[in-house]
User: Fold this.
Amino acid sequence: MNRTVTWFVAIAWLALSAPLAPAQQATAKKVVTVEGITEYKLDNGVRFLLFPDPAASTVTINMTVLVGSRHEGYGESGMAHLLEHMCFKGTPTHPNVDKVLQEHGANNTANGTTYLDRTNYYESMPATDKNLEFGIKLKADILVNSYVKKEDLDKEFTVVRNEFEMNENNPSTILNQRVTAAAFEWHNYGKSTIGNRSDIEKVPIENLRAFYRKYYQPDNIVVTIAGKFDEKKAISYMEQYFGALKKPSRVLQESYTEEPAQDGERTVILRRVGSPAVVGAVYHVPGIAHPDMAALDVLTSILTSKPSGRLYKALVETKKATGVAAYVEATHDPYLLQVYARVADKATPEEVRDIITDLMEKLAAGKITEGEVARAKRKLLAERERSLNQSDEIAKELSEWIGAGDWRLLFIHRDRIDKVTPQDVAAAAAKYLKRSNRTVGMYLPTKAPDRTPVPVPPDVAKLVGDYKGGPPIALGENIDPTPQNLEARTKRSTLPGGIKMALLPKKTRGETVVGDIVIRYGSEKTLTGKTTASGYLGPLMMRGTTKYTYEQLEDELDILGATLSAGGGTGALTFSFECKREKLPALLKLVAEVLRNPIFPEEELGILKRESRQALEKGLTDPQALARNALQRKLNPFPKDNIRYVPTIAESMDLVDKVTRNDIVKLYNEQIGGSFGEIAIVGDFDEKETVKAFTAMLDGWKSKTPFTRVPAIVKANIAGGKERIETPDKENAVYVGGYQFEMDDSNPDYPALVIANYVLGASAFNSRIMDRLRTKEGFSYGAGSSFRASSLDKSAAWSLSAIYNPLNVDKVYNSMNEIIDLFAKKGITQSELDDAIKGLLQERKVDRSSDSTVVGQLASQLYLGRTYERTIEFEKAVAGLTVQSVNAALQRHFDPSRFYIIQAGDFSKKK
Assistant:
């Protein structure tokens, strides 16, 4: 790739690159170990955390740079986020970051996020010494040697602006931005991380480079390495690559702006096209290091947990709102306690606002019970325990706590939650939940000032200095997730009632076990006209049984530290669960109660219906929802009395209004039973006891009607075409397209088409679509393609998608046409094939490192009558593909003229 650079930039690169050639080996000094996480520090200021998890099959490397929107000055709004994008544009050593990450098997290639206090860059890769060294070396290179070139900025600022416009399409997101901005007069927390539109578009490249050189230095980062890796080698690589970086001579000044105490309620009114109405109320609270934050975290759970939360009962159960949420965040400086509610159709925003503020600001005067606090603590602590069992996720989450002051705050906050009392919650509510400290309504003068000073953050170094933490979590065993290894571990059987079972026992981190239960039911004849009722069946079963109310059922799950969720569609009812080994017998008894004794509460159906209707109503003005619905209707033109009919959004709303409890009860009584389906379990469990429990659970529960699969039917004669849908006052537009054809995944061309799609649009930034629309032209934040083929029917489809600014509607349409026309005529190249085979096979292996993914695969195999032998055959076929075989398959199955394209957006602006 040719690059034109000025003498100044070339010299800057040389100056920045020089430290990577080490003069001598640096030495890492151990700082502290807490619950399996060890911190080290290098002489140049680099800090790094090692979190080994031998049961993992991946290694995650996360570099946290201590710069976020809090650190931006005048005219620098969004600069931290913009740099996050620019640091994936390459270095002299790694000119194509996305490609080299894909070559090493990174999931989703380049990943980065920016928030208030930090920016982070991370990836998970198959756990090898080579990948460990590569990931550390790449992070050190990105830190000081990223190009930050004018030509890249010219393209990327439009991508960031497109991301900005995507947020502008969501009134709830914008309301949050407006309320936060009104709550803060001076502190940068009041500014959106993504930045101001004009700053994004006009930032001088010299300013961006200066910002990069100021903050992207070894004394301003923390690197976290988690998963399966050799600790000694990790330390050695950190010493070699990060230790070689020169310690900067500049000294970073701590931000010192403090938000003054608010002296009266503030009001924000937002008027935009869309629905539903949303109400928010926020109150100033301390940073996460302050001891009051544990009580406030418990308070948010007391307010909104389903179904016991006070605001949930006051708003959702009374049909004033369809949803309510409350939360606090892990921030360095004082931030906000936030509450948001979606207003129900027959309620007004004003009455919802008044209910929220009245309830919040009278909490301290009432009684906060031991039971409420205990329930909230169980839920919060169980969530924290589950997250600590996932080393790759914790590696990323630690960025928030590092940005807040120190990673050990995660554990200190957890320990503080465990000690919270009702008195602590009441005291915190009295201190912070005041009218004068609130931002939500209109301004009203007061007779006397009532201000709430927010405490300054404590000395974090002193706070965490002698912290020891609790005992480390039990480690699991290491299993290389090849299909051969998984197949060797899997035990399949059929239970007496007819349901098939697959068990994959293994030792896991935290002794966890996950599972899926799929109940199959009905036929095309018995389910026609019952698709809406089928959608509510599982969720409503979870809302109460003859033994437990909805609230009691949630309490039982919290006590067990378990999760249980229900879903599925027409003809399939799915329950997914997760718990620890010792809790599995008790959880399965709870599952049996849900399956065998649901009561389908009328009031809970009303809540679910209101939630569904509002989600659908939002789609009436949403470009993406309208475009996708229109495309599905175009490709599936079945009559209304056919089970395959795709209703309009308005028709779906009408179906929701009409469905009754009797419809769902009748469906359950007539068609649901334990004769057809699959059970898959992966993790740490007793095999004999588990089989015994499921046998007892399903004993005597027979399906009253036989299950007959509803076959897919392809309308292969639909001609290609295009149409546009106007969505006024929407900043972001969407492009969707597709066509269907007759083919199943047993076709010899199937592996070739999967690889072809990977090259076209499924391999993230390295795909042709993203390379053209995002990297080269800067039109789209997200674009791609998909290819699917049924395992049971001759039903396959290609699809395309992109989001963009409505002003670029013609450019995106023309670019996409050029991409797919060239793809059809010329096919793929040898280098594309090599990269795609390597990337796809590595991605599939990383996917199999997730127990939840394996559970889904095992359940699907049982249904299809397959094993991992089919996976082995597919991956062998992929590895053996040639350019000629892929391009020949494309000639047979890829036809650009058949794509039906729909674009939705506010195209009147272009006119």
User: Anything to note?
Assistant: Residues 1-23, 441-446 have pLDDT under 50 and may be disordered.
